[in-house]
Amino acid sequence: MNWTVVQRILGLLLMMFSLTMLPPVFFSLLFDDGAWLSFVEGFGITLASGFVCWFPVRNSKRDLRLRDGFVVVAAFWTVLGTFGAAPLYFDDSLILTFTDAVFESMSGLTTTGATILTGLDDLPRSILYYRQQLQWLGGMGIIVLAVAVLPMLGVGGMQLYRAETPGPVKDTKLTPRITETAKALWYVYLAFTTACTVSYAAAGMGWFDALCHAFSTVAIGGFSTHDASIGHFDSASINIVAIVFMFLAGVNFSLHFFAWRYVSVKHYSQDPEFRAYVVVLLALSMLVVAILINYHVFDTPGDNILNGVFQAVSIATTTGFTTANFSAWPVALPVLLIFASFVGGSASSTAGGIKVIRWLLVYKQGLREIVRLVHPSAEIPVKLGNKAVPYRVVDAVWGFFSVYIIVYGVLMILLMATGLDQVTAFSAVAATLNNLGPGLGDVSAGFMSLSDPAKWLSVVAMLLGRLEIFTLLVLITPTFWRT
């Protein structure tokens, strides 16, 4: 393990991250909300800590290996979430404990969207902006952003990219150079953010709300500047804009890149995961809408359709925006929506969950096993499109499912041990491990009522979900540490 290289990179990344605390200072001065000092203090502490970490090993130029990349990614997300909590902890208007500040910061960076804050409508604008910015940075992955910059600092990035990028196939690059790949992803990300901001503004949002909600929509985060989330605006046009961009953000960003580069949309229809993603969202939306109409949950059929589709897309993509209290919806709808978050969005999107591609592979392998019962000697490959999926990938998917279920069960039992009831514990783990945000029971309105141990368990679940479990769990295996 090249510890000096790891320390040097962490120092550089911390110093880079400290700069993200300066834009909120501008908003604080612009709106005269008096919260600028907490961001200056957070900036100073983060910058100084990064410098102290980097300076002693600044001349270490050894190559970064894949094993080092896992340590950097895991350590940086943990350290980042902690230092990102500094402005929230120092701000006098919030009066947060260290646990609550870290919870809110980690929820933002992992794009989970679970919150312990109330009275959002009355908070300083700079604090509201900072929460949204955390989600935006975490959406595509601040490590990918760093990959685009690190080569200029003398550090290669392929190991970081492979350790952080989600999905079963991690070596697929959009461009020949990893730096150009990271830049390409961010160009697409910026373009979607800009388009979403303009669309929200055109639909009736003020420019500040439009920017903030574009950050969390494209990042599939779910934080809002209002306690009532998107429901605060009570606008059909705003709901439709949110549905469109939540859907797009849940698509594999490489498909968006190809569409932009080749000015063609044929890649979407040719992609098996995209087709499955569309089918899942359509089926879920129709089922939710049918139940809402049958039970007359809203006054008009139009309201039932719009709210049903909005909530289905929001929860299934793990965004977590709400227009209504879906936890109070009839029959099995609340649990159905929570289960939908386990599917999540596509690989290489900003969505959480297990990912559509993994569910698709499990479904195809299940069909293969049924056929094998009839033809036990047949060699039947698992295919995506016209290509056979390597057995190594199929095995990895099954391994991921197994570990995911075990981790989920362990976390749920531990949360129940802190005093939570079964419904609350079940949905709290789903909300954090799937990077969803809203839950059921005691966490339907937020996580503020949880005890400190329960909040720290939730923080661990957020990190496991954001880094897709293996990136963290690999660090506790003896094999990883053997030379």
Model description:
This protein is an all-alpha fold and 483 residues long. It has a domain of 90 residues. The chain is built from 23 helices and 2 strands. The chain has a two-stranded antiparallel sheet. β1 and β2 form a beta hairpin. The chain is globular, with a radius of gyration of 22 Å.
* Secondary structural class: mainly alpha
The succession of helices and strands, N to C, reads HHHHHHHHHHHHHHHHHHEEHHHHH
Mean pLDDT comes to 88
Cα shape: globular
Strand order of the largest sheet: 1-2
Largest sheet data: 2 strands, antiparallel
Strand content: under 5%
- What is the terminal-to-terminal distance? 8 Å
Count of helical segments?
23
Low-confidence residue ranges? none
Concise synopsis of the structure shown:
The chain is mostly helical and 483 residues long. It has a domain of 90 residues. It contains 23 helices and two strands.
